[in-house]
Amino acid sequence: MKFDIKLQNHLWFWGGYFILNFLRWGAYFEDYLYSFKSNLVEFSLHIPLVYFNLFFLVPKYVLKSKYTQYALYLVLSLFVVYLLKTSLTYYLISEDIWPEANNEYHPFDINHIIAVCIGELYVLAMASSVYLTLTWLKERERNRELRENQLKIKLKYLKNQMQPHFFFNTLNNLYALSLESSNKVPDVILKLSGLMEYVLYDIQNTKWVPLIKEIDYIQNYIEIEKLRFKNVEVSFNIESNIDVVLVPPLIYISLIENAFKHGGYQNENLKIKINCSITPDQKLDFEILNNFVFSPNLKEKKGIGLQNTKKRLRLLFKDDFVFEQKIKFNFFIIRLQIPITNED
What we know:
The chain is an alpha+beta fold. Helices cover 61% and strands 14% of the residues. A five-stranded mixed sheet has the order 2-4-5-7-6, with helices on one face. It has a three-stranded antiparallel sheet with strand order 1-3-8. α3 packs across α4 and α4 (110-179) packs antiparallel against α8 (304-317). The model has no long low-confidence stretch (mean pLDDT 80).
């Protein structure tokens, strides 16, 4: 427990409470001078008791489940407050220590002790309830901000991890072309430069990007891969209006990479088909199909690209997405469906 509520708010609370009590008892006795004096005495004891309870007794005993010790110290504190209140009232205000009772009482009368203690407990409970409620609300907001920051950090980590993975593969492709002294190298470098500009500048500190830009990025990547593969056919089919649709950046590139990495037949063309559409229930459906070389070890291959994509999807959409992988007629199919996010 920390003293993390602004001092001015404490002053407003106690000032407002003092004025309320002053007017209440002043009107009750039609003696505002007595009410002012008695409230000065009472509040000079209320305030230390409240903060002693909040910042010493509660952390030291209640939060450590030492309830018996807490009760003993609280009773002792109330007894000290009773002695001080009775003494100050008697010597500074009036020898009638309890005029509110409309009867003459003397110090240490059982009814007077109980009345003073109940009054102190009332103030203690009310002030502590206000403070603990405000502290709980502030702590809840701080925890919410902490969770959001952790989520952002984790998403950024996953996204940054995907970028080196992608560029590592592309540089390998570029190295293979350079060994062949291919005249395609300048084109690959130029397109790679465009991809790096998108990653380094266009999507930094951005949670969502237009789907159109993401598709441009994918198409540039495909053009690089076409320079590397001799026999590759890629068809892109967009069946809906996606002008205002937003998606998480780089969410699809690992799926495309996977199609190039594991697709194709020996001595035959690599065929990739990409379908993009909006479903009637307003979900963005993205499907990638590629032919592949069947191998018993196919299911054992693991890469960080698809794993990171799944982790990002869980962080972004929790369970509100569909990620499917299946094999049909010697085609490997990945289908990703996410909720629609619009620019407006």
